[in-house]
Amino acid sequence: MDWWLTDGEGIVAGWVLVFAVCNGLRGAYCWFRDRDERRTVEQLITADLPPLQASFLLDGMLGAAETAVCMLVDDGVVKVSSTGELRSTHRGRKQMDPALRALAKEIRSTPRDTTTKLYEIPAAARFARFRELVENEAPAVRSTPSGRSQTLMLAASMVIAFAMGMHGGLSEAPVPFVPEADRSVWLYVAAAAWAVLWGPACLWPSEKRRRWKALDRYCEGEREITRAALPDHTRAAIARTREQPPPPPPVRAPRVRHETPQRSGSWADSVDVDACGSCGGCAGD
Question: What is d(CA 23, CA 208) in angstroms, rounded to the nearest whole number?
C-alpha cells in the first residue's frame, strides 16, 4: 500500500488507474443506457423505413422537406421552375402519406401571384402541420451522443493530473525515474501526465458527432433512391432554394449639404433703427 501512496512510480500508476476506472465506468453506463436505442436502430435498418422519415433522421426538417418536394414533383402534384420556385399543378396522384398530403395542400393554397420556395417549408407558419406530422412519425432516435462523455473525460484528465501533482508534492515522494530531482519537478510530471491522458479522453465521441453510422448509410441510400427518380436538372433546381437569400443592404439616403445663406446689404440693414435719423444730422424741420 505504501508503494501507491509514497513512491513516485506508484503515485503515477495509481492515478492513471483511477483515470482508467473512470473511463470504464462511463463506458459501461453508456452501454447499458443505450441498449434500447441500439435495438431500435437495428430494427430500423432491417425494416422498410419511409424515405421521408429517413431524410428527417439524416438531414433534419430541411432534408425531409426537400425529399417531400421531390416526391410531389415525381407524382405530378408540384412543378418546379428553373430557379427553384414551386407551384401546384392541381393534378397528379393522390397522396396517401398524411405529411405529403398536408404539404401538397399548402402549396396548392398559395396565391397565384406568389410561389413557394424550399427554405420556407422548415420555417414558415403555414407549413406547421407538415412539420408536425413529420416529427410525430419519425422514430425516437438521437442522431448525436447523449450526455457529455468527451467533456467529462477531458475534465477528469485535468483533475487527475492536478491531483497527481499535489499528491506527489505533499507526500514528498521522489520524482518518478529521477529520485534525485527537486520536488518541484512534480509540476512537470503532472503536466506530462495531463498531456498523455488528454489523448484517450479525446477518443470519446463529441456532442456534435453522428452516433449511428450504419443508420446514416441506410437513410442516405433510401433518400437517394427517392430523389434519383427526378432528372438531375430538376433536383438541382429544387436545391437552389435550400437557403434563404440574404436581405439587400439598406439604402443610405444621400447626404444634403446645408449652406449658410449669405447676408447682403450694408451694415445699416442689421440695425433695428432708422440709420439716417439716428445720427441727428439730417433730421428735417
Answer: 20
Give the pLDDT score at 285: 42
- What torsion do the CA atoms of 46, 47, 52, 57 make, to the nearest 10 degrees? -50
Q: In this model, does residue 261 exceed pLDDT 80? A: no
CA distance 139 to 97: 16
CA distance linking residue 106 with residue 95, whole number of Å: 13
Tell me how far apart the alpha carbons of residues 15 and 5 are, in angstroms, rounded to a whole number: 10
- Residues 212 and 143 sit within 8 Å (Cβ to Cβ): yes
Instruction: State which amino acid sits at residue 138.
Output: A
**The pLDDT of residue 274:** 46
Residues 120, 84, 59, 103: is their CA dihedral positive or negative? Answer: positive
Q: Does the structure show a pLDDT above 70 at 86?
A: yes
Q: Is 139 helix (H, G, I), strand (E, B) or coil?
A: coil
Handedness of CA 275, 278, 282, 285 (dihedral sign): positive
CB-based contact 70:229 (threshold 8 Å): yes
